[in-house]
Design a protein that fits this description.
Elements (H helix, E strand, L loop, with lengths): L1 H23 L5 E6 L6 H17 L2 E6 L6 H8 L7 E6 H10 L7 H4 E10 L1 E6 L7 H10 L4 E5 L5 H13 L3 E5 L3 H10 L4 E5 H9 L3 E6 L14 H4 L9 E8 L4 H15 L2 H9 L2 E3 L4 H22 L5
Parallel strand pairs: 1-2, 1-3, 6-7, 6-8
Antiparallel strand pairs: 3-10, 4-10, 4-11, 5-8, 5-9
Length: 324
């Protein structure tokens, strides 16, 4: 009996040692951060900033791999097949992760079993912007116009099922508006469509509309947070503008690992990321870019995603949004 207990204790210590050694091995020589969006977008900039900071912190190489396509599914699938050593990570809008299974009849993976959340990184406030020539001066006039204009209002989106499509659908359902959606291949092209007059309105992050708003080419009517953004202080919050609270969603970009990565390694990645995101320099840089640092534990990210899956899944089903 004593010998059996000794063997069991030795086995447990060996197992714990193996897990500890694996955790201490992160990061490997090179870590790839897959971004399922084009270069120059908010998550791409966020990933490059994070990678540079983690490289300085650890002395290892962090590279960004852009894999856009299918509402983030293409890049996400790459990460689900990654190794168990934390060498492949995913930077993605967590809302896209939970809504894609509702939007698409077939998925190449189940996010609950294929991915493991590491941490929230940054929240991006969304703004409602209209083209310069649209005959509305504020959000209240926009709501009235969208109820009565012949043919409704043409809304540019980053693609069917994109967060700005879902966001505009939330406004439509809450306020009884008449919208027609024009999908583009990303948010940046949708904003260009707004500038050219192809569409009447777009919901997007401040980073892609800020310069155009300051030059007067786009009129920003409302933003989704409860406090005005320091980089666009003249834009009222949704409540100040007379809209129904909670009808402009927020985008939260989060970091994920393949599900096979051990919890001990995920925890170490989380701790390294938290150290970067909580630095005053990063907070200041992101504030200027329209991002709010939103670090979290893996468990907190997962809990938020489960709530979002229920809320936004209902909105998508009621709107009848489906993708192939």
């Amino acid at each position: 009996m004593i010998r059996s207990k000794s063997r069991l204790l030795a086995f447990c210590l060996l197992a714990l040692g193996a897990v500890s050694a694996m955790a201490q091995s992160w990061p490997p020589a090179t870590v790839r951060i897959v971004v399922p969006y084009p270069p120059g977008t908010e998550p791409d900039v966020l990933a490059r900033d994070l990678g540079n900071a983690l490289s300085k912190q650890t002395g290892k190489a962090f590279v960004v791999d852009n894999r856009p396509g299918a509402n983030s599914i293409v890049g996400t699938e790459v990460v689900t097949k990654g190794e168990a050593d934390g060498s492949t990570l995913l930077m993605v809008d967590r809302l896209a992760v939970v809504t894609n299974p509702v939007l698409y009849a077939k998925m190449p993976y189940q996010w609950e079993t294929a991915l493991k959340p590491v941490s929230d990184l940054a929240g991006v406030n969304l703004f409602v912007g209209v083209r310069e020539g649209l005959p509305v001066k504020n959000f209240a006039e926009f709501l009235q116009y969208a109820k009565t204009a012949p043919g409704g209002v043409n809304i540019g989106t980053g693609g069917n099922g994109h967060v700005n499509h879902i966001g505009m659908e939330m406004l439509k359902q809450a306020h009884g508006l008449n919208f027609s959606y024009v999908p583009y291949r990303g948010v940046a092209p949708a904003v260009l469509g707004l500038l050219s007059g192809e569409v009447d309105a777009v919901m997007a992050g401040g980073m892609v509309m800020q310069s155009h708003a300051k030059s007067g080419k786009i009129r920003l009517l409302a933003m989704g947070d409860t406090q005005r953004a320091m980089y666009l202080p003249d834009v009222p919050t949704l409540a100040e503008a007379g809209g129904k609270p909670g009808t402009i969603p927020s985008t939260v970009f989060a970091l994920f690992a393949p599900a096979k990565v051990p919890d001990a390694v995920v925890l170490q990645i989380n701790q390294a990321v938290a150290k970067v995101m909580e630095s005053p320099q990063v907070k200041g840089t992101y504030a200027v870019r329209g991002m709010d640092v939103a670090s979290s534990t893996s468990q907190q990210t997962l809990a938020a995603m489960k709530k979002d899956a229920v809320r936004y899944g209902k909105i998508i089903r009621e709107a009848g949004i489906k993708l192939e």
